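An instance as discussed:

___
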Amino acid sequence: MRRIAGVVWRPRSTMAAVVAAPTFLAAWTVVLLLWLIPAAWLLSTDVGRQGLVDERVRLAEASGTPIDDPQYAVLQASPPWIVYFATGGRLLMAPPVTAMVALMLVGLARLDGHAMGLGAGMAVTVHASAVLALQQLVAIPLQYLRESITSPTNLAALVPMVEDGSAAARVLGAMDVFGIWWIWLLALGLSAVTSRSAARYLGRLVAVYVSGAILAATVIAVVGGS
C-alpha cells in the first residue's frame, strides 16, 4: 500500500524503489480490487444497468445503426456488460493489456542497451496502474450522479466543441486524463531503469497510447451497430 500511495505523492522516488525491488503480485491484487469493487457496485445498481444500455445505444447511433424498440427491450432485459469494460479506456486495467505494456517497456529499455526483466516491467506497469484505480474511485460517484457510465475524465468530455459521434470524439473518448498520468508514470519507470530522461520515453509512449485510442475508436465504429 505504501508504494501504491507513493505513486501518487512521490512518483519519481517510488518508481525508482519499484525498479530496485520489482515485486508486483500484492500490489496488482490491491489495484485490481480497488478498480473492480466500485465497478461491480455501479453495475449492480439500476443506474449502472441503464447506463450500460444507454452506452450501447450511443455506440450504435454513432456508427449509424440506431437501436429499434425490440432491440432496446432485449438490451434492458439483458444489459450488455462487455460495453463497460470495452469502452472509456477501461481495457488498460485488463491483465493481458498489463502484460503487453510490460513487454513493451522491456523492449524500449533494451533498445537503449539496458536489460530490463519482465518482472521489472510488470512491477512498473502494475504500480503505474494505481492511478487508473484512482480514476475509478473518482469517476464512479460522478457516473452514478450523472446516470451515465461514460468516463467524466475522458478527453472528449473535456473538449465540448468536438461533435459527438465524430471520429475525433471517438478517439478522444478512448483517452483519459488519468491515462496520460499513467503514461507519465511508465516513462518514470523506464527512466529509473535506464538513467535517461523520462521525456525520452514520454513521446514514444504517448504515440502508442494515441495509436491504441485510434484502434479502439475504429473497432467501436465497426462493431457498434452489430
Remarks:
- The longest helix spans residues 198-223.
- The chain has 13 helices and no strands.
- The CA atoms of residues 130 and 216 lie 22 Å apart.
